[in-house]
Design brief:
Length: 328
């Protein structure tokens, strides 16, 4: 593990959104490819054959019951300004097992992304921060697609077909769907922001303070994004539980509230999609501990920013576990 250095300049909030919580409402039940902006970017996932693989001497088939959705929080208040993907969560809906898994992806992951110049001429692929992939798009929709392609390439070419991106301005609206929310604080990373936000304390989040809880990190502290991702995980678990309660008590009104938020996102979700998935949500299992995954690897100090080098052996094992079934 690399030791701390002093490459950071100022304490500041960095923009990290918990777009993943919208997996409660966003899911297409078909595996359709969409968004044809240019031939070179026409498919979200790569052309490599992921259907059949061999791992540790055994043969595996891709689990076609998996629906994958990538959620991105963009560090901008203007959807037309191409920011960076500051928070990324890949949600897997397993229709066979009726379960949900979430893979949290750090913006600091070093991986291949698709590059373009200012005139959007193709510059090929290069190893850079995963969060930068979105910025190379010429529109929010294309930026989301480029990020999905990079995530697919990172995960050994499994398809990442569906995506939804939200910018900073949507966060209070998202919180207002559930109103006040009780969340257990997982670490002490925000005690300077609010001295009551200590590890283990139960805090009440609302539209006024949710941004601080899920976005803030100390950029003078190396690898502070790790603490922030822990807070995001705690928030997601609480939000999931609250939405389930709301759907049970008033299904139609809750679906409409969620759809109103979706209309402000870069996504292809329809009201019918939300209704279908909301019905599934009530029966699908999700445990915020056992079903929430972060990638193994090593934090390093880069020349300008933190970097995260993924443990490829552990990643391949995780991909096989979540996306594949052993051949009979």
């Amino acid at each position: 593990m690399a030791m701390n250095t002093t490459t950071k300049k100022n304490k500041a909030k960095t923009l990290g959104l918990i777009a993943v919580i919208l997996f409660l409402i966003l899911a297409l039940m078909s595996m359709l490819l969409f968004f044809n902006e240019r031939p070179s970017n026409e498919d979200v996932s790569s052309a490599s054959d992921y259907h059949h693989i061999e791992y540790n001497g055994k043969k595996y088939d891709y689990n076609s019951s998996i629906v994958s959705i990538l959620f991105m929080g963009i560090d901008s208040t203007d959807p037309e300004q191409m920011g960076q993907a500051d928070a990324m969560q890949l949600v897997l809906l397993n229709r066979e097992e009726e379960s949900i898994q979430v893979i949290a992806l750090s913006r600091d992951i070093m991986t291949d992304i698709h590059l373009f110049d200012v005139e959007h001429n193709d510059l090929g692929w290069d190893k850079q921060h995963l969060g930068l992939a979105y910025a190379y798009g010429d529109s929010p929709k294309n930026g989301a697609m480029l990020t999905s392609q990079a995530v697919s390439k990172l995960l050994y070419d499994v398809p990442v077909v569906h995506f939804a991106a939200m910018d900073l301005s949507i966060l209070p609206e998202l919180q207002n769907v559930v109103g006040e929310l009780q969340v257990t604080v997982p670490n002490d990373s925000l005690v300077e922001v609010d001295p009551t936000w200590t590890k283990g304390s139960v805090v009440t989040l609302n539209a006024d303070n949710v941004e601080s809880f899920v976005r803030t990190r100390d950029t003078e502290q190396d690898f502070s994004n790790t603490d922030r991702m822990e807070r995001q995980k705690a928030y997601i678990g609480a939000y999931v539980q609250k939405i389930k309660e709301m759907l049970t008590n008033d299904f139609d009104n809750t679906v409409q509230l969620l759809y109103n938020v979706c209309k402000d996102m870069t996504t292809n979700i329809t009201l019918d999609d939300i209704q279908s998935f909301s019905s599934m949500l009530l029966s699908y299992s999700y445990d915020s501990n056992s079903d929430f995954y972060t990638l193994q690897g090593e934090n390093k100090i880069g020349e300008l920013h933190d970097e995260f080098e993924v443990d490829q052996e552990a990643l391949q094992q995780l991909v096989v576990e979540l996306f594949y079934e052993e051949e009979n």
